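OP here, attaching both records as promised.
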Amino acid sequence: MNKTSRGLIGLLAFLLVWEAFSRSGFVAQQYLPPPSTVFTRFFELLGDGSFLLDVIASVLAWAIALGISVAIAVPLGLLLGSVRGIRVATRAIIEFLRPIPSVALIPLAIVLVGAGPETKISLAVYAAVWPILFNTIYALDEIDPLLVDTARSFGLGRARVMFTVMLPNSAPFVLTGIRMSAAVALILVVSTEFLAGGSGGLGNFVLDASTGAGRMDLVLAGTLTAGIIGYLINEALELLHRRGLRWSVTGKDAS
């Protein structure tokens, strides 16, 4: 039995337990609808134009945030990882900023950039930069110094060593950081939509569904949609890792 089959069996078992518990009467279905109801609402929502626009808004904000994070974190990580003086000089400010929860910055972000899409994108960028940055720095620390010395002995300058030796060898670590940041960025986008409101997206849909009539079936259907999007993103990045960086994947992982 392969990994996919075991995963599907585990998921089916979880859904069956959820269905039985929800219909047992221990909890009113108004507060915990069974998965059969949630999936019915989910498929109905796929035909709802306004819901699809919310999905597109969240995915677009996620893609922009992740792209900006990569554009910032990879060059900065290469710089900090290769120039020790700059790394030491910036360590204090980085260690001060890194632990700050992004959601705690929502009021500040609203004041600075308003309550539009810029808020969720900015906060997602702030949260997603760190995994990529530290994975890039760690990757440079793990490079065999002999590779760098050999490249320099052939007369390659710092820039060529960076792009021909350091960057290719750090690529698997960087992509791992991007996978981590992809999940973080999606969480922050949806969370900011839910907490800040007013910018559309899945989080705003869940907020609207949870207030007023309190439609938990719609809340869980929206949550299910976010989970499916996150799963598909992770699978796409794993596939990119296996196919694009095949040389860095073990035989078991490549199968």
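Record two, same layout:
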Amino acid sequence: MENRLTLNNEEISLKEIIEKIKCWFSYIFSFWKVLFFSGFIGAVLGLTYSIMDKPIYTASLSFAMEDEKAGGGIGGALGLASSFGFDLGGSGGGMFTESNLAELFKSRSMVEASLLRPVNNVDGKTISLAEMYIQNNKWRDKWKDNPKFRTITFLPGSDRKKFTREQDSIIGIIYLKLSKGALTVGQKDKKVSITSIDVSSTNESFSKLFCEALAEQVGNFYVETKSKKARMNMAILEHQVDSVRGELNSAITGVAVANDNTFNLNPALNVRRTPSARRQVDVQANTAILTELVKQSELAKVTLRKETPLIQVIDRPILPLKVEKFGKLKGIVTGGFLFVFLVVLFLSFKNLFKEV
């Protein structure tokens, strides 16, 4: 008896829910004119937005880096372990690890140095990438009435340390806009040691040129930093080689002069042969030193070649670039659906408050 009563109560509850849904549909469709009008307005606004929306051009560049020092030993063992799914970490001592490399590309110094590189604009004039960004966004039209910003220019290769406060603020804004969304750096596949750079902007030329300039700037900084100690050591050795070679040449000349002065000298006056003997000792000593320094210099050159990493660009951005734009059909559908949904939501809450 109790089971029947429970079943009847459940059937009554289900019927009530169905009836409420029917009533809700009837109530909503009673405002079909409002729904149609709101959908039409939403579709028009969506179409307007799709027409006014600027296309976004994305330039992509991928490269791989090879460092001979990281190829064997523990690095090989870690690579073998990672292939089996074990993460044993790394040495953590290098500043150019995969995790740090992305931050290096997004660092302010690298981005600003890239923005000051020279490029050719549409008129054929040589300007900086920062100036191109300002022209693309029509900032100078907004600065016409502002005497502080009206005369500001960013010349190619200008000294960053001599910038004024206003120049610092402008290039800082450009850096924030590029680093917060416009610039993406990372590995698309963690199993592959290939780094990709994506630069997005509303100007196709700027996206391509800035992407290439940033990759070149970071690449030069990477090579210079990784081989800095080896280059310093080689420069010191080359300076010492030149110095000792000069002393050796001077000693050889001194021996010749001393021999000329003692030509047909009386055997009883051997004391006058002392300068020649001293010069010969200098020649022998400098010859031995120079031989060792030349050997060390050649070894330093080999070390420098080993210390210098190889950066190989795989894919460069090629025009036309990948473009993303809010389509007209998408704008019409999205705008119409959004407005109809908001009206339905409003009518539903209005009906609910009435019942309460």
